[in-house]
Amino acid sequence: MFYSEVEIGQKAKGRVGIMFTFLGAIKPHSIRRIKIVNMQSYFYLGFIVILLFSASNSHPEFINFITEAEPTNFLDGFSIQELEEQQNTDVQCAQSPEFCPAAIYRSYDGSCNNLKNPTWGASQTPYGRLLPPKYGDGISSAALAKSGNELPWPRSISLLLYPEVKIEDPKFTLAAMQFGQIIAHDMSLIAEPNTATQCCTQDGQPLQANQLPAGCFPILLPEGDPQRQVTNTKCLNFGRTLTTRDLNCPSASGATDQVTIITHFLDLSNVYGSNAQVNQMLREFNRGRLRVAQRNHREWPPQANNVSQSCPFARSTTEACYMAGDVRVNQNPQLAVLQIIFLREHNRLAQILSELNPHWDDETIFQEARKINIAMYQHITYYEWLPIFIGVTNSYNNKIIFESKGGFVNDYNPKVNPATLNEHATSTSRFYHSLIVGFLDLLSKQRQVLGNIRLSDWFNRPTVVESGDNFDQLTRGMITQPESKANQFVDKEVTQHLFRPPGQPFGRDLKAADVARNRDHGLSSYNDYRVLCGLPKAHSFDDFLDTIPKENVEKLTLLYEDPDDVDLTVGSSLEKIVPGTLAGPVNLCIFTEQFYRSRAGDRYFYENGSPNTGAGFTLDQLNEIRKVTMARLLCDNGHNLAKLQPFIFLRISFSNQLTSCDNIPSVNLLHWKEEKLGTSNADHFF
Ligand code: HEM
């Protein structure tokens, strides 16, 4: 079942029984699969019972609850600016709701999705974990090597293991990378301490240990570092994620856990916000619409109030700088493009629904448009995007996707916790930072390259997407230009120039940050996850050779003292890719488990019928949703793309040729017309 496509080494074969035993426990619903294989399995079983017990008790009283049944105008008494600041800084532990109403639409903060455990998947709760954390002091400090020595510096690892080597992916476009970032930004966001905290001196020198502010984890640059050589910078700022202990969460005893401030669900929280207050701020309260700014006869996200905070590199406070459900909306131009596509899609749906059902009020139109938008996005995620990353056969075999027989799937399981796994968000998903390309092509309708823009010129400056015909040209670039191949090599635009201030030669290092974050979050070692995923424990570095090529195993020996010291994010990023996927064995294991939980633990998942929520789609509606592709959303919400290939995550090819938008299937919204009152004004949309 679980790893049907994974080629495990010879040594792993004898342990498959244990692997199944353990994996049965990861999915609590499948405990029936547990089979005692030998004494070691008893040990695992004991551990599993402890894990399950702690999982079922680890999310007690959270969540700031606001009932959906009683919509309130939360703007009363608040200025938009205050609300915006709240979105950024007001991090606290969520409170448990006193009761869950029978809501037919999902809540904004994710609470009450699971009726027995109302905080599961809600914003401001801890990430999930497959294995208990490993901290230096057992509670919160960064892990040390087995010997007690310091682990290798994150920046040294980045320089040795993640250089820039440009290899194009032969099959997939930059849109596959970019949609991946949209998903990542829908599933988690670390609760960050005050970003103004300085962990280095103003001129980039390390602080004395006794001067280091709490929550600091500075990234030090080794001798010979290219940035240090040019600028004499020896220290990059890095603040630790806020935890259950920092926030005095009820679950704060024992080892600490990191908190994510957005909902864990695939619910487009990056469009709709992760709590009711932010959602109110984003709405127009007119015909179900989200707020937009009109410029050049187009709709753009509303302007952020605090431009110097949201877009620190903007040239003026009037430069376009967006506000959305997620604070990262401005981070890079193509991310902003996809955020705009989903924003416009909401308003397009709201317009049609309001014409089809003139008797619907603002709230009904808003919620129905939101429900359809989320369903289309979930469909694209599971059926168009995910099989590229975790493989088609693997997706079917693990009940991630299902053969379409035109019915509901109804696989909701209230025992499955939908939480975003710390291992997924802090390691596996970040492996795809390797897909990033540093220069984004601007393409004409004929797919001629008209120019390109450098990523580090436009971090946090979305104004570039509004200039001239850039919106369409960037979109064509994203769906035509190949993404970088999934491997250990990473573009210098993010390892040397991330968030490069204007006029400066260097910026931050995303891969060093990934390694530092892995340790900040206390993830267990690569070796521990090998065992969890059914591979043999490595007793020597050579034991890694079943998954990691020789030249990289050799590099690991230069960095680490012991195979048990190898960080999860480092070991898994060097694995050989499993054929038919974009992941090595351990990443595939974590990725598959995450997306199983994200669907089976979501009571509002779009393929569920009404019994779970009282609010599923009708079968006709569901089968309409199943027609959507990302190409359709681009056709409907781009300016004048004219032609594109039907599957935009795949490169243009003989079987995926450019075609007119007229030939791309669309969702017929007539199935949402409540009663047929003769000819509707909306008929001209179809
Ligand atoms: C140009 C593209 C991208 C840039 C500039 C970027 C940058 C970043 C940055 C700065 C962080 C925070 C680092 C930290 O301090 O811990 C981050 C986190 C993350 N990134 Fe990316 N990223 C990009 C694309 C992607 C893609 C394609 C994926 C996945 C397919 C991804 C997945 C993630 C995840 C899961 C996190 C952690 C989220 C959280 O829990 O807070 N990113 N990225």
Would you kindly provide a written description of the structure presented here, covering whatever features stand out?
This protein has helices spanning 10-13, 16-26, 39-57, 80-89, 154-161, 174-187, 226-231, 269-272, 276-282, 307-310, 333-356, 362-390, 392-397, 422-428, 470-480, 492-495, 510-520, 526-532, 550-559, 568-573, 585-600, 619-625, 630-637; strands at residues 125-126, 168-173, 219-220, 235-236, 259-260, 293-295, 298-300, 439-443, 449-454, 482-484, 643-644, 659-660. The two termini are 43 Å apart. The longest helix has 29 residues, at 362-390. It is globular, with a radius of gyration of 24 Å. Helix content is 34%, strand content 6%. It is built from 23 helices and twelve strands. The protein has two domains: 9-65, no CATH class; 66-192 and 241-684, Myeloperoxidase, subunit C (Orthogonal Bundle). Helix 14 crosses helix 21 (585-600). 51% of the residues are buried. The strands form six sheets. Strands 1-5 form a two-stranded antiparallel sheet. A two-stranded antiparallel sheet has the order 2-10. With 686 residues, it is mostly helical. The structure holds protoporphyrin IX containing FE (HEM). The site of protoporphyrin IX containing FE has 21 residues, from helix 6 and helix 17. The chain crosses the membrane at residues 36-55. One of its GO terms (molecular function) is peroxidase activity. Heme b binds at residue 433. It holds the Pfam family An_peroxidase.
Give the SSE map.
Blueprint: H1 10-13, H2 16-26, H3 39-57, H4 80-89, E1 125-126, H5 154-161, E2 168-173, H6 174-187, E3 219-220, H7 226-231, E4 235-236, E5 259-260, H8 269-272, H9 276-282, E6 293-295, E7 298-300, H10 307-310, H11 333-356, H12 362-390, H13 392-397, H14 422-428, E8 439-443, E9 449-454, H15 470-480, E10 482-484, H16 492-495, H17 510-520, H18 526-532, H19 550-559, H20 568-573, H21 585-600, H22 619-625, H23 630-637, E11 643-644, E12 659-660
Antiparallel strand pairs: 1-5, 2-10, 3-4, 6-7, 8-9, 11-12
Helix pairs in contact: 2-3, 5-17, 6-11, 6-15, 11-12, 11-23, 14-21
Bound molecules: protoporphyrin IX containing FE.
Protoporphyrin IX containing FE binds at residues 177, 180-181, 184, 188-190, 260, 331-332, 425, 429-430, 432-433, 435-436, 494, 510, 513, 517.
